[in-house]
Amino acid sequence: MQNLRSVPFPHDVATPCLDGAAYEELQRSFPEPSRFDAGAAELDHRVLRLSSQRLLQEPAFAPCWQRFVEDHTSQAFWTRLVERYGERMRELHPGLETRVGRPLDQWKAVRRGTGERGDVILECQLVINTPVRSAASSVRAPHVDMASKLWTGLLYLRDTRDDTAGGDLVLYDGAPGLRFDGHQAPRDRLVQQATHPYAPNSFIGFVNSARALHSVSARSPGPWFRRYVDFVAELERPIFDVPQMGVLQRRWFRLRHRQESR
Questions:
Q1: Phi and psi for 130 in degrees, rounded to 5?
Q2: Cα dist. 28→33, 101, 134 in Å?
Q3: Helix (H) or strand (E) segment spanning residue 190
Q4: In whole angstroms, what is the distance from residue 218 CA to residue 70 CA?
Q5: In the chain, what are the domains?
Q6: Which helix (H) or strand (E) holds 253?
Q7: Residue 38 confidence (pLDDT) above 50
């Protein structure tokens, strides 16, 4: 747990993350946008994903990516996560091990999509955000991840030619008594605390909770795809509660959100 940052919530940053040669091999063989969706090049700022299951099943994907995905959905990877983040997981979710019936380091890890039963489900998927075609916009407003997620990691593979502004990960503190619309949070109840740039070979990982508030900063129009790896460790059921807005507060929030979007 050395070097974990605690503000505004427990997270880990590594820049650079991977060995230079290993990273270059991965970024050179990152799948073409058409592998995500045949019409990806025409879509305006959409999120498209390639699951670990598909990456491992289809031989057309580069062997280096198949090895990478295999490693990051393995029991050994879960062991490394517990060594790095286990103390924070226990602090934020103190009843979790009791609920599962075993200490974290004894949990059985399975890869998402296999149909196997385990204590924790791992995913390592490739993600792109298609180019912004019209006005500057964000793919994700302030939110917390789904309450079934225990840990999230992001590895950015930005094209070195990409000069588009934005696409950074923004971290927030929430005001006391903060309430959500689903998993989205109102900006006027948040204080921006940190920004993790969308940079090549840059990683951020964090333990998920109702405190793990984040968003993606607005990207300017341009021809470039935003590329990254999304790592997930999740359970089948929610781990924590996400306090919800009342009916009137939710209506006001959604009205303001529509106005901001326009």
A1: -70, 160
A2: 13, 43, 28
A3: strand 190-196
A4: 33
A5: 11-261 (2.60.120)
A6: helix 247-261
A7: yes
